[in-house]
Amino acid sequence: KTTTAEERADAEALKQGTASSVAEGECESSTLDDFESVDISPSGTFKYVLIEAQDPQGNTKHLVRGYRDSEYHVYAARPTVEKLRDMGMSARVLGGGRLKHAPQQKTLHLWGKSHSFGREDKSVTQSVCQEFYPGYKVTW
Asked: Considering 73, 101, 109, 115, which one is annotated as catalytic?
């Protein structure tokens, strides 16, 4: 599905709001460990994004987010990006695509790109997913 004017505006707002850096010490009670590296729908084919999160100390973590009910990539990214921001961390959506999650076959397949955020480095997404799902075959 192609993007709409509303989705493009939402994506631009998300990009603008997450580019700022965070001041030292703003995030004392929360850490990147509070965020699972992968949070996706339990099965099916859907849009996903790769997010780079950073805490005030400069530590980074890659997060994969994808949900069957997210019509556009921005809506897969927004809840996590907003939560990171609320906790004093910064985030950048590196790109996205589509993902097929077949839990019975223990496979994840990644492909495509996000019209709003572009194509991320699939090898990074593959690595994050493979570490989270060690018994799966993750391809792109």
From this structure: 73
Contact 99/66 with Cβ under 8 angstroms?
yes
Axis-axis angle for helices 5-18, 73-86 (nearest 10): 30
pTM: 0.85
| Alpha-carbon gap, residue 55 to 38, rounded angstroms | 18
Would you call 73 a catalytic residue per the annotation? yes
Which residue do the tokens 């994808």 mark? 66
C-alpha to C-alpha distance for 26 and 43, rounded to whole angstroms: 37
**pLDDT tens per residue, range 1-51:** 567 888 777 777 777 764 444 444 444 467 999 999 999 999 999 999 999
